[in-house]
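Morning. Coffee machine broken again, so started the prediction first thing and wrote up yesterday's gels while waiting. Chain of 265 residues, entered below exactly as on the submission form.
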Amino acid sequence: MEMNATYTSLVAVGDSFTEGMSDRLPDGTYRGWADLLAARLAARSPDFRYANLAVRGKLIGQIVEEQVDRAAAMKADVVTLVGGLNDTLRPKCDMGRVRGLLTEAVEKLAPACGLLVLMRSPGRNGPVMERFRPRMEELFGYVDELAARHGALVVDLYGAPALGDPRLWDVDRLHLTDEGHRRVAEAVWQSLGLAPEDDWRAPLPPAAPPGWAARRLADARFAKEHLGPWIGRRLTGRSSGDGRPAKRPELLPYERPDSGVTGVS
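Came back before lunch.
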């Protein structure tokens, strides 16, 4: 990777991880690692353009159907693709179909952009994740295969123990906090051959673990506010992203905050 390369456009494709949940801004919208990365890239290139097609809850089939062709047509310098993890969290998951759809996405995107960036997504520890971990690791193994076959870049977030720290995960236990997203942005930034700002793999400072009562209260809140609704959507075939548009559907110039427009959403 060329050190200190210049990139003039970025298109982000995927689900809630790339949409930016749960890096919430004061107005209630989500920012996330892709927006943070775009802001930093725009500071290096006055004509930088950015699109974020990701929508929460999307399965890999929906990503291919709704986002991939649009992203390929934009002919960006960099395209990021993170998808398939929602499929692995479903009670019934056809990994062969997931592999086929991911292959289709990569085969369309890789030749249509300057650099395709794939990821091994971060994963926190816990009984829920342990149940689905074999599927996740199968998915990540195939991501590595596709990257080698098509000259794509892989950012290995899964292999960074620090990103498994519960303090970097929101109360829903599925999405990163603002600090987690900041670290992901730094990881992609460095993978693009740009000068490091800090060590995104660095562990958080030691902290006393929460007491029994605090853990039980957190578990009860998680079950009521997040696990129950998540199970309900799975049983009824609904998704949190149903009817939701992408937050940046067009590849447009990125306006920096000093221009009067924040440029992030």
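The first strand starts at residue 9 and ends at 14. Going to sketch it on the whiteboard this afternoon.
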